[in-house]
Every structure is written in structure tokens, then in C-alpha cells.
Amino acid sequence: MCSVLGLLSSRHAALAENGPLPSTCGSNDGDEGAVPPGVLSYIDPSGYFRLVRPCGWRIVARLPQGSSVIGSFYNPEEPGAETLAVYRAPAPPGVEETQQLGTARDVATSLAAIAPNGLIVDAKSLEHGGRSYLLAHVQFGGNTAGMFGAVREFRIVTIASGVQYTMRLTTTRYRYLAFPQVRDLANAICESFEVLV
Asked: pTM for this one?
């Protein structure tokens, strides 16, 4: 039994030998002139948001009905370790605009507090098209992230018309530190996220 479980977990572990982009992503893939190379523009079919996503990442085509997830993507060579999702849910009671959520540091502090060894890496405010966004970049230790080791998580939140939109991007700490392109991709994804409603 233990050997079967060991085999299963090793097949899904984040692998150090994988490059920053999936091997299915060719050298000319991505939008022309995109910075960094290897990103593709994505507009939500329902018109809620847009962002860039890494080429080679798969789109989760069938989301659970009634779920708050409105967009989901993952790196097929790092399943579970590198993910990107966008959520849509009612804003907290009494919150009508993004500033009422507090500062970006407040959001990062709340995120870091959800698990032991949560560490705030960065927190800042962004603006797109006159709308404010709060960015939290947090690291969670291996005891929380399990087989992936330490994980880097980015969350961006904004409020629009009584709805909270959250973009969540994850990667392993190892891949974030080992590959400058993974850092560039994370920054590009975060900078590109825009709610369209």
C-alpha cells in the first residue's frame, strides 16, 4: 500500500527539471511582441475579466456549476503546483468599493494568516482603467503546501458593482526563485488582470 501511495505522489510532485514554460509551448508561441515572451492574451467568454496567461497552460473547460470560479488554468507539467484562477463572489457586507477592503498590506496580512508559516513577500495597489486592485504576494511553508514544498501565492482583489473579483496565481517557491521567467510571468499575469464589468 505504501509503495502505491509513494508512486502516486511522485507522479504529481512538482519537478525541478521542468523549465519555466511547459514543453508544449514553442519558442514562437505567445502573443507577438509580448513581454515577457510566452504569454497569451485571454478574455473571459462571459466578459468578466481579461489577463495574460502562459502559453502551454491548459484551460479548465468545465467548471462546477454554481461555483464562484469563473476562470481556471494550470501548467500540465506542474499539476496542482502552478495554477491560475479567477473567482467572482458577493462583496463582504457593507463593502462597495475596493478601498473598503483595507490596504494591500491588510489583504496580504489576512492571506498570510490563513496557514502557519505564512510570510508576506509583497503588497501593493494597482490601477487599471480607473479601477483599484489590491495585490498580495505571500509564501506558505512546506508544512502547509505539502508535496509541493513552499508555495508562492499571488492574489489580486477588486470590487465592482457589489461583487468581489479575486485572481489567484500559485507556483512553487523553488520554481519562482530558480527561473527568472517564472517571476516575469507572475508579474505579467498580475499586472494584466483587469475586471471588465
From this structure: 0.85
